[in-house]
Amino acid sequence: MHPTSRSRAAVARRAHNPKVGGSIPPFATTKARKSLFLFYRFVVSFKGPNNMKAGFVSIFGRPNAGKSTLLNALMGEKLAIVSPKVQTTRHRIKGILTDDQYQIILSDTPGIIEPKYKLHEKMMMAVKSALEDADIALFLVDINEDWIELDDLFSSFKLSAPAFVVLNKIDTVSKVKVEEALAFFGSKSYCKHIFKISALNNQNTKILLDAIVEELPEGEPFFEGDEISDLPTKFFVAEMIREKIYNIYKEEIPYHTTVLVNEFKEKSTLVKITADIVVQRETQKGILLGEGGKMIRLLGTEARKEIEAFLGQKVFLELHVKVRPKWRDNDFMLREYGYR
Ligand SMILES: Nc1nc2c(ncn2[C@@H]2O[C@H](COP(=O)(O)OP(=O)(O)OP(=O)(O)O)[C@@H](O)[C@H]2O)c(=O)[nH]1
Ligand SMILES: [Mg+2]
């Protein structure tokens, strides 16, 4: 993650705020803000025209469709972690994109799955919350997926907001296949507009952004101009460690793991961060540590480099591996680890 100084300042400011620095704030906060603002919008609508546009735009799709890649492409910087493995994103991650003319509150969401654990249920609650307050829904399609299955999924959404179907990964298929997909999804009743993009290569993302702005409701911004997310620094730090776990460890390990940052102390020359890596079994702890601690050292080095670039400061990172059997199905532990 290499945000600009603007975002670093916003994120760092949150780190100093004890109210938001310690845990992921409940999404209800934003919901309450939105209700208040809708009331305000209703009141000011009697006072005359308002040229500013503002609204919530949420990205939905199956795991691995490229939702987080698209959020980062639209934001112009990396906010959400990305991996070639499925089910990387576990939270609703908001990116706030502000311009003179508009403010878009973009939401990346977990890929839609049939829940197997309470963790999955929490992930699907994050999807539901993003569905509820969307002014525009982006239905993201990995063009290589099963279109009929996706059509069933999109048709099942109870959505009052307009939906844009966004065909992603067009760099991986022929032009003919893109045309076929345009014809298939373009004729569906939920599809207000359709786009063909490559989020990875930033192809056609500006066209998509312009259409989003066109469709946004009029209104004043929900957030201050320099805020790029409503999530605390600790959240992003934990996510960066989790991304490295997805990159470094094979097969099931990332799915049995979560990360909790429990110390974030700014000292005169560096930031001291202590994080727990939580796994379900002793054998997984052994794999995470590696022979003679080789793997955890690699993880620590990779994660520290990324966090230092993100904070623009030297970091001392201490990682502890903890075994918490069945944490993915334990409400109390899930709450403790930030899954609300
Ligand atoms: N070729 C190609 N790959 C892409 C494109 N967009 C995303 N990817 C790749 O697809 C994989 C998944 O991307 P993510 O952004 O993590 O997907 P996601 O939908 O957020 O996945 P979950 O969080 O697991 O639901 C990564 O390896 C990306 O690099 C694209 O336009 N073209
Ligand atoms: Mg994702």
Task: Describe what is shown at a glance.
With 340 residues, this protein is α/β, with parallel strands linked by helices. Helices cover 41% and strands 20% of the residues.
Reconstruct the topology from this structure.
Layout: H1 5-16, H2 18-21, H3 28-44, E1 53-60, H4 67-75, E2 93-98, E3 102-108, H5 118-132, E4 136-142, H6 147-156, E5 163-168, H7 175-186, E6 191-196, H8 205-215, H9 233-248, E7 258-266, E8 271-279, H10 282-289, H11 294-311, E9 315-323, H12 331-336
Parallel strand pairs: 1-3, 1-4, 4-5, 5-6, 8-9
Antiparallel strand pairs: 2-3, 7-8
The protein binds guanosine-5'-triphosphate and magnesium ion.
Description:
- This protein is an alpha/beta fold and 340 residues long.
- It has two domains: 8-215, P-loop containing nucleotide triphosphate hydrolases (Rossmann fold, 3-Layer(aba) Sandwich), CATH 3.40.50.300; 233-336, GMP Synthetase, Chain A, domain 3, CATH 3.30.300.
- Helix content is 41%, strand content 20%.
- It has helices at 5-16, 18-21, 28-44, 67-75, 118-132, 147-156, 175-186, 205-215, 233-248, 282-289, 294-311, 331-336, and strands at 53-60, 93-98, 102-108, 136-142, 163-168, 191-196, 258-266, 271-279, 315-323.
- The strands form two sheets. Strands 2-3-1-4-5-6 form a six-stranded mixed sheet, sandwiched between helices. The chain has a three-stranded mixed sheet with strand order 7-8-9.
- The longest helix is centred in the C-terminal third of the chain and has 18 residues, at 294-311.
- The protein starts with a helix and ends with a helix.
- 39% of the residues are buried.
- Mean pLDDT is 89; it is low at 1-28 and 44-49.
- Magnesium ion is lined by residues 67-68, 80, 88-89, 108.
